[in-house]
């Protein structure tokens, strides 16, 4: 098996999709008709990958929402973050669709890419998170929006699984990014369903997340142990995705149990804390030579972990939990501010270079 990224081109920290003959033909026609190279798969891949900005921002909004419940933090902070997340989500999704992402064959080309296929799950995940957050304004509308996004997430995950089990990943090993559509998305769907008081749906989707976490988590971890040394440096940040399943799974379980931390909830906390310890030891291997948009892949694992830890510190009544919670939230928020600033500077440099 070839390591992820062996024969792909890195596009500003992301792995560009392999061009199938069909996609190449479409791009050639598109460029000849419009003279716009942005119709290429590289551009569409970057648009979807940049949705990690929206996902990370929504994750931070969720952490502030938990802080509102546990610490009395201002509600407007979470609302503002979800508003920014929604704006980024909408702009990038429109760009993706305008430049060929609305064609089913292009969507399939993206889904079938061994390095970046999982990133399409960003679209419904952000939608589900937003539906849950703003449900206090109009519950029925939020439920309908959730239904659309949850079905979209299920279709993406099912299509990916069908592709994988029929040999679609024969040329590349599994990496932790694949946990996002088949494990994290069902857990997020479950947590959102509990928020929307859809208890049966929450139980159904939680079961899906548990099953495929046990199945794919075991396979991916085993593959990393056996072949992790072959993972190229640009792909190594995906290792932080290992943090997401215990974080969002724990949030889903506690949401279904109205914030109570029973033995299962404590088990999720233990899994998250141990996974964070593993990732801490991986930091030297995660370092990148320079800033690029791919740094945003770190954002949602950090935000989701913070969200669950805020709930756990409060629900378990850890000594000094209030001070620890505020320090944690402040540190993570400061890191996000630094990430926003670096992203804007990077975008400015890219525009400057493009105009030279």
Radius of gyration: 20 Å
User: What is the CATH domain class?
Assistant: Mainly Alpha
Query: Structural class, from secondary structure content?
Result: mainly alpha
CATH superfamily: Voltage-dependent anion channel
Overall residue-averaged pLDDT value: 84
Task: Provide the number of structural domains.
Answer: 1
**How is the quaternary structure best described?**
single chain
H and E string: EEHHHHHHHHHHHHH
Low-confidence stretches: 1-38
| Tally of separate helices | 13
What CATH calls the topology is Glycosyltransferase
Largest beta sheet: strand ordering: 1-2
Instruction: Kindly state the percentage of residues in helix.
Output: over 70%
Largest sheet: 2 strands, antiparallel
How many runs of DSSP E, i.e. beta strands? 2
Label the CATH architecture. Alpha/alpha barrel
Strand proportion: under 5%
Form type: globular
Distance between the termini: 41 Å
Task: Using brief descriptors, characterize the structure shown.
two-stranded antiparallel ribbon; globular; Glycosyltransferase; 1% strand; 13 helices; single chain; mainly alpha
């Amino acid at each position: 098996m070839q390591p992820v990224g062996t024969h792909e081109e890195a596009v500003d920290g992301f792995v560009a999709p392999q061009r199938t003959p069909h996609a190449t033909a479409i791009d050639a026609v598109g460029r000849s008709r419009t003279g716009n190279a942005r119709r290429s798969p590289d551009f569409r891949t970057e648009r979807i990958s940049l949705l990690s900005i929206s996902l990370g921002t929504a994750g931070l909004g969720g952490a502030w929402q938990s802080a509102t419940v546990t610490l009395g933090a201002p509600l407007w902070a979470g609302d503002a973050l979800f508003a920014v997340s929604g704006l980024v989500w909408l702009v990038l999704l429109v760009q993706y669709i305008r430049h060929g992402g609305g064609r089913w064959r292009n969507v399939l080309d993206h889904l079938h890419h061994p390095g970046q296929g999982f990133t399409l799950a960003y679209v419904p995940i952000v939608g589900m998170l937003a539906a849950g957050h703003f449900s206090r304004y109009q519950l029925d509308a939020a439920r309908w929006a959730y239904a659309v996004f949850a079905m979209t997430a299920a279709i993406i995950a099912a299509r990916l699984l069908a592709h994988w089990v029929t040999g679609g990943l024969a040329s590349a090993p599994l990496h932790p990014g694949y946990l996002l559509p088949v494990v994290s998305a069902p857990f997020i769907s479950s947590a959102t369903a509990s928020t929307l008081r859809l208890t049966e749906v929450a139980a159904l989707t939680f079961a899906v997340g548990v099953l495929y976490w046990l199945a794919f988590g075991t396979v991916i971890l085993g593959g990393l142990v056996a072949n992790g040394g072959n993972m190229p440096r640009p792909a190594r940040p995906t290792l932080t995705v290992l943090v997401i399943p215990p974080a969002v799974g724990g949030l889903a379980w506690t949401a279904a149990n109205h914030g109570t931390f029973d033995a299962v909830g404590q088990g999720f906390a233990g899994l998250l804390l141990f996974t964070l310890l593993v990732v801490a030891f991986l930091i030297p291997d995660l370092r990148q030579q320079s800033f690029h948009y791919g740094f945003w892949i770190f954002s949602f694992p950090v935000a989701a972990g913070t969200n669950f830890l805020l709930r756990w510190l409060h629900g378990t009544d850890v000594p000094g939990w209030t001070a620890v919670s505020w320090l944690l939230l402040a540190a993570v928020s400061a890191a996000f501010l630094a990430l926003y600033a670096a992203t804007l500077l990077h975008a400015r440099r890219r525009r400057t270079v493009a105009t030279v």
